[in-house]
């Protein structure tokens, strides 16, 4: 098929969905002439499939089909889907592929967000085949497959992953707030850097088990970003955070404080300094992601005015697998 689509046989799970089917309709000068049929797939048998086109039902012999593709639903995205795509844009992976609407992300294993398929939209395949394709993509890169599933989306995907015995890790809350509801603060002890320094990277790396090259690619991959550095009275860096502005959203990530300086309000101060910067940059809303079990962080952000918009989970097989 033209346009880089995925070619495959259409099967019963595709019935009821829009498809495009390329088939041979004749010969000209000894060469096959092909034509596309676009419509809703209404039937699949061992020898034929039926497509309901604008001109009526069209029975097509499978022997004449040279390529076929399910057309992703052209529906409006939900608020959850839109926010997940904004968050993904703020955490760009080292390598990115597409499976229909799904994003396939690989970054050498650094962070779940950088190394999981984001199951938003239509993968253009039946659910089981989509999971097989994800598994194969990560196997080619020597990585265990992982799929990030926003909830309550994934009604079809979750049962398939359950059937395969994939486990659930890292339930994470996505919290949001209007910037006008947050007390933006310009803090003289918080430096907002346009480029991260080695000290800043070291601060993040100390809490993330060190920073491989992939980490630097992710952290510096958004043009409109600030790297917040909390400085003690003697000028030592004691806290870090990162803010990005994407599509009118401030994304707040890698908030962390040196253990010796915790419970001194640094996370709050860095967050609000980034809010002040983002408001000046034209952002209207903010989001952040916090693990469901991190009660202190959840309490902090709720006191500031953040509320949970949705939750996502990461699913992966219990052991490395091949399709």
TrEMBL record:
Source species: Virgisporangium ochraceum
Any Pfam family hit: Rv0428c_C
GO molecular function: acyltransferase activity, transferring groups other than amino-acyl groups
Protein name in UniProt: N-acetyltransferase
SUPFAM superfamilies, sorted: Acyl-CoA N-acyltransferases (Nat) (SSF55729)
Annotated Gene3D superfamilies: 3.40.630.30
CDD domains listed in its UniProt record: NAT_SF (cd04301)
Domain N-acetyltransferase: 188-323
């Amino acid at each position: 098929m033209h346009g880089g689509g995925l070619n495959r046989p259409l099967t019963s799970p595709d019935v009821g969905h829009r498809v495009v089917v390329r088939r041979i309709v004749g010969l000209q000068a000894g060469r096959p002439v092909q034509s596309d049929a676009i419509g809703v797939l209404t039937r699949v048998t061992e020898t034929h499939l039926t497509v309901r086109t604008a001109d009526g039902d069209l029975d097509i012999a499978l022997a004449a089909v040279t390529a076929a593709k399910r057309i992703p639903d052209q529906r409006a995205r939900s608020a959850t889907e839109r926010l997940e795509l904004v968050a993904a844009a703020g955490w760009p992976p080292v390598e990115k592929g597409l499976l229909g609407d799904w994003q396939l992300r690989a970054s050498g294993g650094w962070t779940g967000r950088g190394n999981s398929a984001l199951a938003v939209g239509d993968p253009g395949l039946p659910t089981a085949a989509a999971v097989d394709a994800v598994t194969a993509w990560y196997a080619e890169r020597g990585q265990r497959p992982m799929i990030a599933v926003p909830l309550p989306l994934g009604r079809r995907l979750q049962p398939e992953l359950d059937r395969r015995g994939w486990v659930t890790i890292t339930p994470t809350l996505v919290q949001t707030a209007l910037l006008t509801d947050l007390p933006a603060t310009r803090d003289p002890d918080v430096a907002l850097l346009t480029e991260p320094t080695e000290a800043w990277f070291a601060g993040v790396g100390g809490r993330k088990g060190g920073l491989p090259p992939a980490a630097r690619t992710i952290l510096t991959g958004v043009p409109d970003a600030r790297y917040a550095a909390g400085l003690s009275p003697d000028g030592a860096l004691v806290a870090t955070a990162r803010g990005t502005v994407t599509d009118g959203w401030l994304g707040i990530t890698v908030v962390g404080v040196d253990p010796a300086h915790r419970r001194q309000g640094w996370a709050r101060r860095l967050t609000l300094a980034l809010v002040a910067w983002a408001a000046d940059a034209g952002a209207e809303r903010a989001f952040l992601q916090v693990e469901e079990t991190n009660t202190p962080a959840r309490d902090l952000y709720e006191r500031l005015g953040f509320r949970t918009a949705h939750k996502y989970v990461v699913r992966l097989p219990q052991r490395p697998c091949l399709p």
